[in-house]
């Protein structure tokens, strides 16, 4: 079934560390070798052996309307003829920033970058420059990309591969990042009591989705808003995953809590390399060339990425998009709940909007400790069964399932059927 992928993986391993360009693509934690993708369309991806899968990885989030969405492809094709990069201002950059500012009221100004990692790295530098303080608080199991300051008890790939603290991050820098349990107000309170004057920022995923999906407990985001305001620290929402996914205005709209800075990525680029950070003018005007905090990029605001992103901004503002996404995701979750009742396995399900996770544990998953109570061996076998059944999910327990508008009811039913068979084999 995977002959050509196996061959190509072997060849890739000679030239790419671990055969991949990002560790999250490795299938090592699920004891498999990755399938190589040839093309994708709508809700499906197709591998080089001719296998077809219903895709719930969704390029790790960007494909809110499925692959090869026709408006995006058409707009990008037109832009291709005009040029791929100029290193000079273009109107589409301003239009993109205008759209973001319209949809996210806490954002007056935006700086476009090339990835989520760049967005979070730059936002933290800005918070440090703005406050004149050095320390940051992050949450165990949250992932903010691979910037040095964030590879401290990090979720996603680092958690999957057992590398939550990476070698190569200088100890002096790591000591400036304080990691506390997600949803734990007391832990934050204690840190602020001890070193409040040194804390530049609190950064978090307002819905954690890199230790599997873990929603914020009621009041948690409000608490963070209150304490950071009182203590003069910058509150940074990393909405790289949740931005334009859980609502048009992101998690901050969904939960009605306003951060000082917002990091974006994934959906705003419709599959092109892109990220952004933005916030109130008072803080953003510290960014060079207006202010002294340096941040730059040869390809930042790339015309192809901006053109694709702008189409995405139009698509998400169509009537009923988030309702449809929620209905589809609720349908899938309800089906999963039914399986949970029928099947004799420890299962726990979390969902926020179109982000879902199935954990192999009896515990209610509220933080990294409970997320890691999941039986990852069972997940590995479940993953293998799903893959062979034509359902492409993340090769890690500590990631989300992404539902898109392109998933049809029939495909969700098929997914649930394969899920049922995959789980029953594990009983
Ligand atoms: C919440 C969050 N922040 C930041 C990142 C980093 O983004 P990128 O992989 O584009 O660098 C990711 C995903 O990778 C993410 O899920
Ligand atoms: N949730 C994790 C990611 O989105 C990252 C994918 C990658 O690093 O390849």
From TrEMBL:
Its main location: cytoplasm. The modification N6-(pyridoxal phosphate)lysine is found at residue 266. Its EC number is 5.4.3.8. Pathway: Porphyrin-containing compound metabolism; protoporphyrin-IX biosynthesis; 5-aminolevulinate from L-glutamyl-tRNA(Glu): step 2/2. The lineage of its organism: Bacteria, Bacillati, Bacillota, Clostridia, Halanaerobiales. It catalyses: (S)-4-amino-5-oxopentanoate = 5-aminolevulinate. It comes from Halarsenatibacter silvermanii. GO terms for biological process: protoporphyrinogen IX biosynthetic process. Keywords: Cytoplasm, Isomerase, Porphyrin biosynthesis, Pyridoxal phosphate. This is Glutamate-1-semialdehyde 2,1-aminomutase. It comes from the Bacteria. It is found in: Cytoplasm. Its cofactor is pyridoxal 5'-phosphate. Homodimer. Belongs to the class-III pyridoxal-phosphate-dependent aminotransferase family. HemL subfamily. PROSITE patterns: AA_TRANSFER_CLASS_3. GO terms for molecular function: glutamate-1-semialdehyde 2,1-aminomutase activity; pyridoxal phosphate binding; transaminase activity. The keyword Isomerase applies. GO terms for cellular component: cytoplasm.
């Amino acid at each position: 079934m995977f002959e050509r992928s196996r061959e190509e993986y072997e060849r890739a391993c000679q030239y790419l560390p671990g055969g991949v360009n990002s560790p999250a693509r490795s299938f090592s934690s699920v004891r498999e070798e990755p399938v190589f993708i040839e093309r994708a369309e709508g809700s499906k991806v197709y591998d080089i052996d001719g296998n077809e899968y219903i895709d719930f990885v969704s390029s790790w989030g960007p494909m809110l309307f499925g692959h090869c969405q026709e408006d995006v492809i058409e707009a990008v094709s037109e832009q291709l003829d005009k040029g791929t990069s100029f290193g000079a201002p273009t109107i589409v950059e301003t239009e993109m920033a205008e759209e973001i500012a319209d949809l996210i009221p806490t954002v007056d100004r935006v700086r476009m970058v090339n990835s989520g990692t760049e967005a979070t790295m730059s936002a933290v530098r800005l918070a440090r420059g703005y406050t004149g303080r050095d320390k940051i608080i992050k949450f165990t199991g949250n992932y903010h990309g691979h910037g040095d300051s964030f590879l401290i008890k990090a979720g996603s790939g680092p958690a999957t591969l057992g590398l939550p603290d990476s070698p190569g991050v200088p100890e002096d820098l790591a000591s400036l990042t304080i990691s506390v349990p997600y949803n734990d107000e007391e832990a934050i309170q204690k840190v602020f009591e001890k070193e409040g004057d040194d804390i530049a920022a609190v950064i978090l995923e307002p819905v954690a989705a890199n230790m599997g999906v873990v929603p914020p407990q009621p009041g948690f985001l409000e608490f963070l808003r209150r304490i950071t305001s009182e203590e003069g620290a910058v509150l940074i929402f990393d909405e790289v995953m949740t931005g334009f996914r859980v609502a048009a205005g992101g998690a901050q709209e969904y939960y009605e809590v306003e951060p000082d800075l917002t990091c974006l990525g994934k959906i705003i680029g419709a599959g092109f390399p892109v990220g952004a950070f933005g916030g109130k003018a008072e803080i953003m005007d510290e960014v060079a060339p207006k202010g002294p905090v340096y941040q730059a990029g040869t390809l930042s605001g790339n015309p192809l990425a901006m053109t694709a992103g702008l189409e995405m901004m139009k698509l998400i503002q169509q009537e009923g998009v988030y309702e449809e996404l929620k209905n589809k995701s609720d349908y899938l979750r309800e089906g999963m709940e039914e399986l949970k009742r029928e099947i004799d396995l420890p299962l726990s399900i979390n969902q926020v909007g179109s982000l879902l996770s199935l954990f192999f544990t009896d515990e209610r998953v509220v933080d990294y400790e409970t997320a890691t109570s999941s039986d990852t061996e069972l997940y590995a076998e479940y993953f293998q069964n799903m893959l062979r059944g034509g359902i492409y999910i993340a090769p890690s327990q500590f990631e989300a399932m992404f539902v898109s508008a392109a998933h049809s009811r029939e495909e969700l039913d098929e997914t649930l059927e394969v899920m049922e068979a995959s789980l029953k084999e594990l009983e």
